[in-house]
Amino acid sequence: MRIRSRLTLRMVALTAGLLALSFTAVYWFEAEGRRKQFTQLLLNNARNRTIIHFEFEGANAGTNPFQEYRADVLPNAELYLFTFENELIYPNNSTPWRPAIEDVEAVRKNSKAHFSLSDGREMAGIHLVDEYNGLVAISVARDEEGLSRLKTLQNTLLWVLLLSLPLLWTLAYWYSGRALHPIRNIILSAKTISSTDPTARLTPTGSRDELEELVTAFNDLLRRIESAFQAQKNLISNASHELRTPLAAMQMGLDVLLMKETDGDTLRREIHRFKSQVQALTTTTNHLLMLADMETRMREGRLPQTPINLADILFKALEPLQNHPEFHHLNWRINETLENEEALNTKGDEPLLIIALRNLIENALKYGQSSAVGVYLTRTSQQLMVEVKDNGPGIPKEEQEKIFEPFHRGTHTLRDGAHQEGTDRIPGHGLGLPLSARIALLHQGKITLESSPGQGSIFRLILPVTLFT
Fold first, then answer.
1. Which long-range contacts (C-beta less than 8 Å, at least 24 apart) are formed by 234-237?
2. What residues in the chain have per-residue pLDDT under 70?
3. Do residues 164 and 19 lie in contact, with contact meaning Cβ atoms separated by under 8 Å?
């Protein structure tokens, strides 16, 4: 069932239910009013006819005062009079029907009482406590006119309810269509969006309501998808370039070696060059595979759960860098205020964190322009932090977000005197920082950057503290 039909059905059901409830209340109040009014008539009839009965006691034979009293109000009312001993004194004991003694006692106990009889008649009695020795007077009659009016009201309300259903359906169907009209426009607009036009967006409704929020949220989603597609496209393009360039160079070098005779020294030199290119390809491929694995693990929620000590991780990350030509510029320390090793505990994947820290420190050594590089391990109440500080060229603010994108290499990677268009860059592939950032995210942490051109850069790897028992 379509939304419009469901919405129409619910609106009709709700409105019909409210009408039925309202009509029921009207009928109940009218029936209660009729009952109270007729009860009062019965009570008045019982009192007045009792008074007439005793006033005409001993009158001329043949006189019937009851026929003379308000015959137009309750013409068919019957009167029953009981003494304080529940003895029927009017009419005589031979009458075929009389009120039950239980009802008489109920009247005497409550002073007044009303009863509905099984044959449709109604009975009301009054206890004349201070008159006629505690006599109980009961009047019985059928409210033909009142019940007829009530029946007419019941039929009228029922027909109004039944006849209003088609009108309610028509109005609800029209209103639901009008309410859903913006949604239809959104659907038509969404159908025009294709994979070949990732820049297309939904047209705002201008209604400033939840539908406008839906359109805004959907357009934000489209923007994120477009960014993801563009990033994927750039990744594939850059990865193809990074892999194709060394492969082409290797193929060309091999062709040259095959075309001419080469002495042993030259051959060894070329083999070493090919080996370094193969190592660069292997590193690039491994980084790409690790990036893909990071995305998969984060999407599946497979977070590292192994207890580790961040100080140990830092030592292991520094160890392979001892052969780096700039290693002598490195200064590192752990905050002396930490009381014990447990203060540096967290959950993590040791090999991945070693890679993340090594990338940050190696970048600082590479771009530090042979100046001091500081590595500091400290902790706050909730976080562990490794700060890597260099005195390199710094990173412009407009590039600071992009450096965490795969294969992006900013102006800070240019050698001194090189131009933006040139190819004279410090060696690298633009995968180290993106990989480190994703490793931090996998550990529910982050990498922050603080940098200004000419002032160097500070990268901070921040991880949550974990207490182990």
1. 234/405, 234/406, 234/407, 235/406, 235/407
2. 56-73, 75, 194-198, 205, 207, 228-245, 262, 336-342, 409-425, 427-429, 467-469
3. yes
The domain 307-464 having CATH identifier 3.30.565.10: the answer here is: yes
User: What pLDDT is attached to residue 347?
Assistant: 85
CA pair distance 406, 232, nearest whole angstrom: 10
Closest CA to 366 of 402, 331, 393: 393
Ramachandran sector of residue 199 (left: φ over 0; alpha: ψ -120 to 50; beta: rest): alpha
| Assigned token pair, 326 | 């700039």
Domain boundaries, the chain: 3-149, 210-300, 307-464
- Evaluate whether the domain defined by 210-300 bears CATH number 1.10.287.130: yes
Cα 26 from Cα 11, distance rounded (Å):
22
What pLDDT is stored for residue 152 in this prediction?
95
Long-range CB contacts for residues 243-248, cutoff 8 Å, separation at least 24: 243/281, 243/284, 243/285, 246/277, 246/280, 246/281, 247/281
Q: Which two tokens stand for residue 378?
A: 């400290």
Q: Which of 157, 155, 156, 148 is nearest to 34 (CA)?
A: 148
Are residues 370 and 326 in contact, defined by beta-carbon separation less than 8 angstroms? Answer: yes
Instruction: Round to whole Å and give the CA distance between 278 and 253.
Output: 13
Longest Cα–Cα distance in the chain: 163
Rg of the chain (C-alpha set): 49
Instruction: Quote the DSSP letter at residue 414.
Output: B
Tokens representing 135 are: 């006599």
Spatial CB neighbours of 404, under 8 Å, sequence gap ≥ 6: 433, 434, 437, 447
Q: What single string gives the DSSP state of each residue in 162-194?
A: HHHHHHHHHHHHHHHHHHHHHHHHHHHHHHT--
